[in-house]
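Can't attach files on this board, so I'm pasting raw text. These are the components:
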Amino acid sequence: VGMTRSQQMAAVRQADTPPEVEIRRNLWKRGLRYRVGIRTPGGRPDLVFPRQRVAVFIDGCFWHGCPEHYVRPRTQEAFWCEKLRANFERDRRQTRALLDHGWSVLRFWEHEAEYDCVKVCETIAATVRGELAEQRHRRVVNVTLVDQVADLERRTIEDLLDAAFFETTHGPRRSRGGGVARRRRTL
Ligand SMILES: [Zn+2]
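---
Top answer:
Structure tokens for the assembled complex are below.
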């Protein structure tokens, strides 16, 4: 009673299975057989199709810098920035290593797995069949506060596969799911 739609969604999500489990279930129903947590030239992807050499990663929106959902941490900024950069470099290394070894690499955001499970599974199925869809791998690598009063931040976004990067300036970001307004901190 009295819950907004996004609050209801959040409540459902917590009780629900993690997005990855949903993906696995869907793939299984499609007759696709994968391996979980096995070693490849690029680390241990979340799902692996060894024979077809397809690696699938489900990247968390916060840890891997989702352009839509990354929220600038309000404390220990330097620590988190370093962490974000380290994750980016590791993702880049692993993706390149797999591509160099002739693998197909699919990286999905956690939010895609959560809200577009069917589409994600269709992309995986097509790739396993040998039809590789082109993917963008843009992620947030750095965020700096440029205006405390307006809570404006400048974000640097880079691509995992090429050297392209660009910067954008944003107002305050809300946590994933939106709906719940974050109270602006007074400094
Ligand atoms: Zn996201």
